[in-house]
Structures are given as C-alpha cells and as structure tokens.
Amino acid sequence: IHLQAKLLRAIQEKEFEKVGSTTPINVDIRFISITNQDIISAIKNNQFREDLFYRLNVIPIHILPLKDRVEDILPLANYFLFKFSKENHKSLKMLTPKAIKKLETYVWPGNVRELANIIERAVVMDKSKIIDVDHLILDTPINKSQNKENLLDQEFTDKKLSDIEKTLILKTLAKYNYNRSKTAKILGITTRTLRNKLNLYNFKKIQKY
User: Fold this and answer.
1) 46 near 37, Cβ under 8 Å?
2) What is the mean pLDDT of the chain?
3) Alpha-carbon distance 147 to 152, whole Å?
4) Quick one: pLDDT band at residue 110, thresholds 50, 70, 90?
5) Is the dihedral of CA 201, 203, 208, 209 positive or negative?
6) Residue 15 bridge partners (DSSP)
7) CA 12 to the chain's CA centroid
8) Radius of gyration over every alpha carbon of the chain, rounded to an integer in angstroms
9) pLDDT tens for each residue of 123-142
10) pTM of the prediction?
C-alpha cells in the first residue's frame, strides 16, 4: 500500500524522488499495467488502493484465456519453438498436425505461461526435428480442492511409468547441470515436489544447488 501511494503520486503529479533524495524529478511517462488478480476484491480487502485503480484503469483491455483464443495457440507455439530452440542451441523443430490438434484442444489452465513451459520441455527433451503428440506432456486438469503435489505423486503408481519418470528427471537434471530450480521449471513441478521425487528414488549422487 505504501508503494502504491508513491506510484499514484508519480502518475498524478508526474514527478518522483530518488531513494535518499528530496529533489523531485519530473517525468513524462505512460503506464501499461497487467494483472490476473481480482482487483475489485483486492480493493474491498484493502489490498489495493481504489484511487490508484481508477488512475490506471483508463483504457481497460480484457484478454480472454488461451482456451478461448484457439487461433492464437499455433502462432504462440511457433514463437516459443523459435525462442527456446535458439536459447538451447537446438535446430528449429516443427509441430506435426496431430501435435497442433492436441495443443488446440487442451484447456490451458495455466494460459500462455503453461504453453511456453510445455514447448520448452519438448524442445529440451527431444532430439528429433519434429514435435509429435508423444512429446507434449500436458498436465491433467485437477480439482482445485485437491493437493496438486500429492496428486502428482499418485499419478505414477505403475512401475513402468515410474521408470519413465525417473529417466525424465535424471536427463533434465543432467541437461541443466543438476540445477534443481531450472529442472523443476522445465518439468512443470515445484522444487519441493522435485526434492520429494529425488528422496523417493534415493538419488544420492545428485548435487545440491
């Protein structure tokens, strides 16, 4: 709330002071703000200033969730393919028609961030030049009242699936020099879940970062 007051002043008065200074600095700026939170509820709960909200909410743009913008999925997927192929020094991969259909029919509870995560995972983990249906590891939608981490632990009860999971974790850890934070991000799980998996399978040789 304290910082919100300073931001409001900068917008209204078009000036601010540097930390430790009392000399105002005039600025001519425009703000573009974005949120996925319920701001009205935040205002009612005194978590967001009402006057700041109306200052920022001059031209509101409401963006539909990704599942309701099917036409945007393929262009975004191709963008992330190019981005992550370049970042990971991989040859540019192509999506098969079946893979595209799978992406376009998925519900995307995590919106664009989830799409980016899934494409990055496919780019990093697969060595072929195409990305097919089997390369896209999509999360199963779960009830919000369920504990997501416990559900993840229960999904791999079959021995064969457990072996696949172990291999996937090991390859990803090796790819990122056993950096657990990066590995968890690529796998789409929390670092806590990753740690539990390592303990479960007794990975004693894994370095800690």
Assistant:
1) no
2) 81
3) 9
4) confident
5) negative
6) 26
7) 33
8) 22
9) 888 777 888 888 888 865 54
10) 0.53
- Tokens, residue 79: 């963008």
Select from 56, 79, 101 the last residue of a domain: 56
Given a cut of 70, whether residue 146 has pLDDT beyond it is no
Question: Which two structure tokens, joined as six digits, stand for 137?
Answer: 């590891």
- For residue 148, pLDDT over 50 is answered with no
Tokens matching residue 203:
């990975």
- Give burial (CB, 10 Å; 0-12/13-18/19+) of 85: middle
Nearest Cα residue to 56 out of 88, 33, 81:
33
Residue 122 near residue 168, CB atoms below 8 Å: no
Q: Bridge-partner residues for 95, per DSSP?
A: 131
Residue 143 has φ and ψ, to the nearest 5°, of -70, 135
Residue 206 lies in a domain: no
The number of folded domains in the chain is 3
The DSSP annotation for 52-96 comes to HHHHH-SS--PPPPGGG-HHHHHHHHHHHHHHHHHHTT-PPPEE-
Both 70 and 115 in one domain: the answer is yes
Q: Give, in order, the Cα–Cα distances in Å from 128 to each of 23, 83, 86, 91.
A: 59, 17, 15, 9
Q: What is the CATH number of the domain that holds 125?
A: 1.10.8.60
- Where in the sequence is the domain holding 49, given as residue range(s)? 2-56
Torsion of CA 183, 118, 196, 157, to 10 degrees: -140
Which sign does the torsion angle of CA 38, 39, 42, 43 carry?
negative
User: pLDDT confidence of 99, banded at 50, 70, 90?
Assistant: very high
